[in-house]
Amino acid sequence: MIGATRSTPLRVDAQRNLEHVLRAAREVFGELGYGAPMEDVARRARVGVGTVYRRFPSKDVLVRRIAEEETARLTEQARAALGQEEEPWSALSRFLRTSVASGAGRLLPPQVLRVGVGPDSEGADATTARVPQQRQPAAVPGQSQPDLRLVERGPEPAEHDPGAAVLLDVVGQLVERARAAGELRGDVTVADVLLVIATAAPALPDAAQQQAASARLLDILLEGLRPRAL
Description:
Elements: H1 2-7, H2 12-32, H3 38-45, H4 49-55, H5 59-84, H6 88-101, H7 162-180, H8 190-199, H9 207-225
């Protein structure tokens, strides 16, 4: 009976609520990071927080769902660029432009953004270390400031997440092709490419300003990935 219940299609209203929750979660996590509370997701979805918890028994489950969907979306974008662009640099830049335009930088799964930075990361692998800080809300006098960089128990590291491992592999192919063609700096890694996506996706209140800022910032970052002229 349990298996039959799980395979039963959702009612129309339940399916609609699920879609609203997922859309709201993408927006809220995109603005505040994966540390944003479930209450914010429910408020954005215009449903009760109980409705959110009926579909996702914990925030970790919801975070994992959003992260998995974003990983799959990025992987498809990388595969499309790899398969449809003959020129290595065109393939890499297409992937970056498509990913930034889709807002992926504000939802990159934590396990694929483990980049070694700072004095404690010396000698770390280029695809393994810490996640860049996401935007936090303004501090409220008298209240402690929450750390919204990551949920305490976020998605598993890439080596334990098949979806993330596939993404890193496909992006790695884009990087290797561009590097082998002499069109990418020799020290650029897969982690650097993913950081470009994260960096070029600022969260601004005005959509037009955000799009313009992302496009300009990405142009600057793309230029920085190119080999230096001798």
